[in-house]
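WARN retry 2 of 3 for item q-0093 after timeout on previous attempt; input resubmitted unchanged.
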Amino acid sequence: MNELLFSQAVPADNGGRMNCRVMRIALILGCLSLLAPGLPAQETEPLWAVLEAGRRHFRNEEYGEALRRFREVLEVQPESSEAAYSIGRIFEEHEDFREALRYYERALDGTGFTIADREARVRYRRARIHEVRSDFGRYEREMEALFERDEFFSSDETAPQRQNQLRVVREQSLSRALVLYRIDPGPFADAHTDYGGYLVHAGRFAEATPHLVRGLLETFSHAIERYRRVESGYSFDTLQSFLNEIESAPEILDFLEERHVWEGMYYLATALYFDGYSTRGEELWHFLSGRAQAGEWADAAVRQLSSPRPPTFPRRSP
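OK item q-0093 returned
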């Protein structure tokens, strides 16, 4: 019987009961997989079109159709990294982490990726699964190995610039650092923000800050450049004014939400506060608490302002 139907991993915090939505979608996936285990793509339909159709189904949460399309690609091109990665995403979405890891490994061993920077994102998703499974040592090792691929973060040549960025954030503000520095967009911002949050929960605040600064500077740099394409005369001056400006540009706000910017700001504030930069931490908590878009992270900032305390390990929702 199809593994996807029966090998769903149970989340650690639900008392051993599988989420009903996951079970329902898994049942649909299992049935579709049995009915259509991987039909060869039509000769008139190029593989890139089959991949794109699968991605479209995935975005629409039509996971059974997405799985069928990606398997069509693997029938024709068994070493397709893109198809294997996409199947891994489906399994991860449904918390079958064993199968997700298997397909991510297959993707990394395959023919390579047509989308720039995909390999780094696959390695990041693989590492995150290890944290979800409470294999924290392996999560840390894989994240550190990933950051070695980030030339800006790992190069000795850029060390002075990284130190200056940290100094400005610690002594002045994140807003001031964005006036002085820009980081070209790449595949590492989400991973840095995620790892910084993990290190905050682990009580390693000094280690967390460089990762959080790296992730937030890159994310906001990207957002500012995207907004300039909408408003060609825009000139950044403060983070407050920028966030007010983009209230009329929901696609930019959505981008920041997708890149977990509110979470990153909360953890940066927390890292600064407990690493001896309490004034900077409180200022950033205050800033975040006044942003309705920040949702649960604004609420968490309010609680910290009332009674500061380091987060617990392992991390959970705020």
